[in-house]
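Quick log. Single chain, no ligands specified.
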Amino acid sequence: MSERTGIFQGADPFEIARSWLAEATETEINDPNAMAMATVDADGMPNVRMVLLKDIEADAFVFYTNYESQKASELDSAGKAGFVLHWKSLRRQVRVRGLVEREEGPQADAYYHSRSLKSRLGAWASKQSRPLSSRTSLMAEVAKVTATHGTNPQRPPFWGGYRIKPLEIEFWADGAYRLHDRFQWRRENLSSDWVIQRLNP
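-> predicted structure:
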């Protein structure tokens, strides 16, 4: 394997990802933590949508959503997902594939309570991914849950986090003449050691 230097250097891929995200926070205009997440439905048909990465833990990537949404149904059914973080300003990306588990404990409560009140009420009001007759009906539902749950709503039982534990992480940086630098970290299972290799662009 080629020696990894510069932005690719380090023994911990999660630390490298945190470092790249911190750099992107300084250069990206909007949502440096936006990631395109891919799932598959029961028929194997893929779905991709943007979600916001909220934490890079010691061994996982965490985001939050409605557990009754289509994405949650697909995550729960397959138990696997992939995502890519792409930063145009840095000309870099991180690709991840791995296993999924729910985060619906105190950590999910803490993140929910860190959100704005309108976002917390919106989580109660939205029946995510399901048909909606009009925006007016959605705003009426927001008013209804505001009256019901007040100014300090608890986390809905149908809303929480997911933790993606990678089996593969790829770090990619743009290179001259389309000769990009790519390093893949791969492991057979979550308790295995990482195998690192450089990939052709």
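Strands lie at 34-40, 46-52, 55-56, 61-66, 80-87, 92-103, 159-173, 181-186, 195-199.
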